[in-house]
Design goal:
Blueprint: H1 3-11, H2 22-53, H3 64-72, H4 75-97, H5 100-106, H6 110-122, H7 128-145
Helix pairs in contact: 2-4, 2-6
């Protein structure tokens, strides 16, 4: 394949390099769902694990090893790391299928998931103003979501 043909195919200016198959769109939406769920879940679990460790305000240097041991032995910390790793892999795969300008805004639905999980898992109170802010973000995501995720033909 000539360099010029490769450039045209990779730049997306040719419709021959694009694949808008329903199966690829379905995979894109499924992996976007993984990102939207696992990013906030991982962060919530890390937060719960660290709240169980205690505040870092009064930690002294001599307590570093016992605190590190507590962190490394926390199941919440490890579950949080696992969720964030799963999200990272799903995000990388997702970026091979769809435009970044679609993926990044659409993944902002995770703000709504963060609010719900914070309420149920951490017991946090979500103020009406914060709920309104999350709703505004979700409406923006819906506007972005009405544009089709352009997918590459190599996925």
């Amino acid at each position: 394949m000539a360099a010029e043909e490769l450039y045209v195919e990779n730049s997306g200016s040719s419709s021959a390099g694009m694949n808008d198959s329903p199966a690829l769109h379905l995979k894109t939406y499924i992996f976007l769902g993984f990102v939207i769920l696992f990013a906030p879940l991982g962060n919530i679990l890390l937060g719960k694990g660290m709240k169980n460790i205690g505040s870092a305000k009064h930690w002294s240097l001599g307590e570093a090893l016992p605190i590190l041991g507590s962190i490394l032995s926390s199941p919440y910390i490890w579950m949080g790391i696992g969720c964030l790793l799963a999200m990272f892999v799903a995000y990388m795969v997702l970026l091979t299928w769809a435009d970044y300008s679609y993926v990044q805004p659409a993944s902002s639905f995770s703000y709504a998931v963060t609010g719900v999980l914070s309420y149920f898992i951490l017991g946090e109170i979500i103020s009406p103003l914060r709920c309104l802010g999350i709703a505004v973000i979700c409406v923006g995501v819906l506007v972005v979501g009405h544009t089709a995720p352009r997918t590459t033909g190599h996925a």
